[in-house]
């Protein structure tokens, strides 16, 4: 009875031993040389191909020298990337550091980016949210700057005016415009404060502009992101007049028939 119970275990052990013997040696598909199992490259569990560590090391060196950061597995039709942590022990520190720099560059290039314009900072800033940014605060020096024109924040002024030299009074006026939420005419630069009423502003220079976005005046929903879905009061009044007119004529048409 005891021997019968032990036979399945013995068969299993024999199978494991045979499997270990099969895995003890393999032939590298790159150099076509028989290699021991402890020299087999393991790609962090992403894929498993019969490549020796020496060939993978040389392969990484060639790719890095070719300025390639995202290195794919050399396996035929394999789209997995090489795991840098799995390769760290088989390449030199200099080569690994250069590879990491290329990987960082490839990540940075996928985002809209700029450098902080302040000379005492110059930190790299990435737009990871992929929104249309304008005024932002540098995460390093905590100073505000314009992400569009890549210059220190120009409170109260447009980007096309940000490169012009201004004295301290102009800067203070710009900060006041921003604080009071005034809008400057796109044509002459005159500042206008809107207390109430329609956002359709007629400037002293004769042009009409939208007080919410500062652009040319437009009926209906504002196309500029900062305006949201605001409607002009003129359009609302026009719709109210048309509705009243139709209602009045409908009453006149119905009333005679009811007599």
UniProtKB/TrEMBL annotation:
Record-level GO BP terms: protein ubiquitination; ubiquitin-dependent protein catabolic process
What this protein is reported to do is described as:
Might act as an E3 ubiquitin-protein ligase, or as part of E3 complex, which accepts ubiquitin from specific E2 ubiquitin-conjugating enzymes and then transfers it to substrates.
Annotated SUPFAM superfamilies: RING/U-box (SSF57850)
Cofactor(s), by name: Zn(2+)
Which cellular components does GO assign to this protein?
Answer: cytoplasm; ubiquitin ligase complex
Alphabetized, the UniProt keywords read: Membrane, Metal-binding, Repeat, Transferase, Transmembrane, Transmembrane helix, Ubl conjugation pathway, Zinc, Zinc-finger
| Name of the protein in its database record | RBR-type E3 ubiquitin transferase
Positions of transmembrane segments: 226-248
Tell me its family: Belongs to the RBR family. Ariadne subfamily.
């Amino acid at each position: 009875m005891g021997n019968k119970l032990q036979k399945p275990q013995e068969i299993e052990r024999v199978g494991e031993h045979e499997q270990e013997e099969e895995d003890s040696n393999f032939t590298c598909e790159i150099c076509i040389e028989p290699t021991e199992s402890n020299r087999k490259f393991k790609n962090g569990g992403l894929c498993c191909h019969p490549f020796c560590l020496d060939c993978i090391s040389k392969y990484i060196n060639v790719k890095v020298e070719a300025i390639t950061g995202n290195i794919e597995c050399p396996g035929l039709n394999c789209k997995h990337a090489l795991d840098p942590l799995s390769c760290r022990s088989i390449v030199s520190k200099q080569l690994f550091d250069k590879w990491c720099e290329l990987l960082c560059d490839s990540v940075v290039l996928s985002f809209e980016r700029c450098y902080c314009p302040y000379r005492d900072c110059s930190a790299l800033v990435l737009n990871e949210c992929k929104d249309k940014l304008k005024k932002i605060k540098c995460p390093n020096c905590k100073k505000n700057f314009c992400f569009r024109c890549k210059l220190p924040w120009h409170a109260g002024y447009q980007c096309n005016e940000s490169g012009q030299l201004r004295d301290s009074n102009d800067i203070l006026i710009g900060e006041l415009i921003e604080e009071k939420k005034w809008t400057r005419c796109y044509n002459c630069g005159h500042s206008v404060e809107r207390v109430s009423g329609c956002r359709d502003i007629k400037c002293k220079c004769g042009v009409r502009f939208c007080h919410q976005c500062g652009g040319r005046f437009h009926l209906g929903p504002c196309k500029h992101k900062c305006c949201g879905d605001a409607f002009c009061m003129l359009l609302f009044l026009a719709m109210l007049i048309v509705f009243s007119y139709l209602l009045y004529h409908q009453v006149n048409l119905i009333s005679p028939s009811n007599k």
